[in-house]
């Protein structure tokens, strides 16, 4: 049983560019959350998607947007990249009813902005 | 002040020692408390979760929550070199997790 799959694993972008990160949730999971983890820090919540809608959002600017597809997979889009957006971006999926303790995390996409 | 405080370490102990990892928090509304383990270049992996105050044991791992002190702990018995990783505490808040910065643990053979 595949867990959470994220692509790509690594990405290098130039300041000002746009990026799309992808996530396939674990089988049986319908909720996807995205987190940003800077080096040496704990993850920071970006947003959560359920039933193809953004349900919760953390303290991130509108440059960060997302989407969830009918098969529960999700994308994270970041526009007008800044150097400070360099981080590990984690996708976590869960069955909705399990709440926060049912999360399974992917290995992340490491984004470097130069 | 951060909502969740965690000493970043590194914490280095010899193999077989008992390890104690801790977090303090400020939001009394937190109900679920979790410990995750993160190896280098990997995503966090849930080790244990506890609801409200009390203890929970799973093999070599014991989680403790003291809501009156806003203090949680993870104990690892008979530590192994494979336990070397970063350990992060996390707490629930309205369908999002609030995390500590993580403690880097090194178990020396």
What is the gist of this entry?
The complex is a heterodimer of chains A (114) and B (109). With 114 residues, chain A is mostly beta strands. Chain A is 0% helix and 50% strand.
Number of helical regions of chain A: 0
Calculate Rg of chain B over CA atoms: 13 Å
Question: Based on helices, strands and strand pairing, what is the structural class of chain B?
Answer: mainly beta
Overall SS class of chain A: mainly beta
Largest sheet report of chain B: 6 strands, mixed
Give a verbal description of the structure.
The complex is a heterodimer of chains A (114) and B (109). Chain A has strands at 5-7, 10-13, 19-24, 31-37, 44-50, 53-57, 64-68, 74-78, 87-94, 104-105, 109-113. With 114 residues, chain A is mostly beta strands. In chain A, the strands form 2 sheets. In chain A, strands 2, 4, 5, 6, 9, 10 and 11 form a 7-stranded mixed sheet that branches. In chain A, strands 1-3-8-7 form a 4-stranded antiparallel sheet, with no helix packed on it. Chain B has 109 residues and is an all-beta fold. In chain B, strands 2, 4, 5, 9, 10 and 11 form a 6-stranded mixed sheet that branches. Chain B has a 5-stranded antiparallel sheet with strand order 1-3-8-7-6, with no helix packed on it. Chain B is globular and about 40 Å long. The mean pLDDT of chain B is 93.
List the topology elements.
The complex is a heterodimer of chains A (114) and B (109).
Chain A: E1 5-7, E2 10-13, E3 19-24, E4 31-37, E5 44-50, E6 53-57, E7 64-68, E8 74-78, E9 87-94, E10 104-105, E11 109-113
Parallel strand pairs in A: 2-11
Antiparallel strand pairs in A: 1-3, 3-8, 4-5, 4-9, 5-6, 7-8, 9-10, 9-11
Chain B: E1 4-5, E2 11-14, E3 19-25, E4 32-38, E5 45-51, E6 54-58, E7 61-66, E8 71-76, E9 85-93, E10 96-99, E11 103-108
Parallel strand pairs in B: 2-11
Antiparallel strand pairs in B: 1-3, 3-8, 4-5, 4-9, 6-7, 7-8, 9-10, 9-11
Q: Any key phrases for this structure?
A:
heterodimer; A: 114 residues; mainly beta; seven-stranded mixed sheet; four-stranded antiparallel sheet; 11 strands; globular; B: mainly beta; six-stranded mixed sheet; 0% helix; 58% strand
């Amino acid at each position: 049983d595949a867990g959470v799959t994220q692509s790509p694993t690594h990405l290098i972008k130039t300041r000002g560019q746009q990026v799309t990160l992808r996530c396939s949730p674990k089988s049986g999971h319908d909720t996807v959350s995205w987190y940003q983890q800077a080096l040496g820090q704990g993850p920071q919540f970006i947003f959560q998607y359920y039933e193809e809608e953004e349900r919760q959002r953390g303290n991130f600017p509108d440059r960060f947007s997302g989407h969830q597809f009918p098969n529960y997979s999700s994308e994270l889009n970041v526009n007008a990249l800044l150097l400070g957006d360099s981080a590990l971006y984690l996708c976590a999926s869960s069955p909705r009813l399990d709440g926060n303790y049912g999360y399974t995390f992917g290995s992340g996409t490491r984004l470097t902005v130069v | 002040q951060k909502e969740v405080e965690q000493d970043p370490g590194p914490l280095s102990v010899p193999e077989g020692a008992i390890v104690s990892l801790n977090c303090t928090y400020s939001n009394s509304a937190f109900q679920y408390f979790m410990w995750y383990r993160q190896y280098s270049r990997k995503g966090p992996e849930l080790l244990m979760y506890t609801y409200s105050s009390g203890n929970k044991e799973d093999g070599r791992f014991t989680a403790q929550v003291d809501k009156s002190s806003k203090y949680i702990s993870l104990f690892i018995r008979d530590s192994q070199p494979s336990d070397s990783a970063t350990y992060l505490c996390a707490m629930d808040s309205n369908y999002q997790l609030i995390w500590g910065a993580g403690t880097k643990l090194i178990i020396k053979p």
